[in-house]
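B., you asked whether I could sanity-check this one before it goes into the benchmark set. Here's the sequence:
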Amino acid sequence: MPDPYISVVIPVYNEEKNLEELYRRLTAVLDGLGKPWEILLTDDGSRDHSVALLRELHKRKPEQIRIIEFNGNFGQHMAIMAGFERVRGQIVITMDADLQNPPEEIPKLVAAMEKGHDVVNTHRLGRQDSRWRLWVSGLHNKIRAWMMPKLKMQDEGCMLRAYSRRIVDLMASTGESTTFIPALALNYATNPVEVGVAHETRFAGESNYSLYKLIRYNFDLITGFSVFPLQVFTLIGIGVSVCSFLFVIFLLARRFVVGPEVEGVFTLFAILFFLIGIVLMGLGIVGEYIGRIYQEVRKRPRFVIREVLEAGGSAERQNPASSKESDIPEAVATETA
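And here's what the prediction gave me:
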């Protein structure tokens, strides 16, 4: 088999009902392009029968379909990073396994890449999500645009994107344990572009993203690529300090003019509680940054691979890129043909 021209990287988590349809539609699209291709599917610790189905797909096209199995759940972006470390194509496309990103849109991304762009971002046209999901997504996009105006991205939640091999190699070399891939790619891009793509309802199953996960996902984006929240609370602290100083002067002047009085005690308590709330919120934001610093300085593996299925594979005892050069027992990562 010649080296692939297109690599498609797909994270998989409890998608047993979607894999067969994904295989049928995706392989038909890639075959229609008339260029060598490969698909890398990373199982992110699925608890259903996804692993068995992935192994069956590998047997059908062992030269073109490669399977990476994690020994636990490490998150969508780490599953994509594991694929980035092993891609062989010059154009690398990411997408979800739930078929909300139609594989039929891939030729549009390939055409944009072949025009000389190194990153092709996308925004979803005619979104088929629920109202609360649309509201949360819209709020995320507005917050990100406000806090990070230099990050030109209309729709941060769409994973159907294309990257040049150079961009992918740069992202894989970072070694970050928490990151947001579309934003990281834009940091390295020299000629990005954004195109609209169709959006469909999930083919089967339910979304793995709860409201809490969506909020955490936005925290990862903001704290990973901006110090804006820290700067905001610095400004708030300065403003509150100035107002407090002026309020003290007002109370002192009032004491001289009016004399001692007990009225306004509850107002003072309300102001105190408000200021305490501001302090606790600021400490929470600082804690988010410190927590990510803590994750990085521990130098633990970003993910641990249990097995890699690919044609002509050889035993892989350690994955330096994902382990950050830390010591891992020999049995941690193995690779079989």
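One thing to flag: The CA atoms of residues 82 and 294 lie 22 Å apart. Otherwise nothing jumped out at me.
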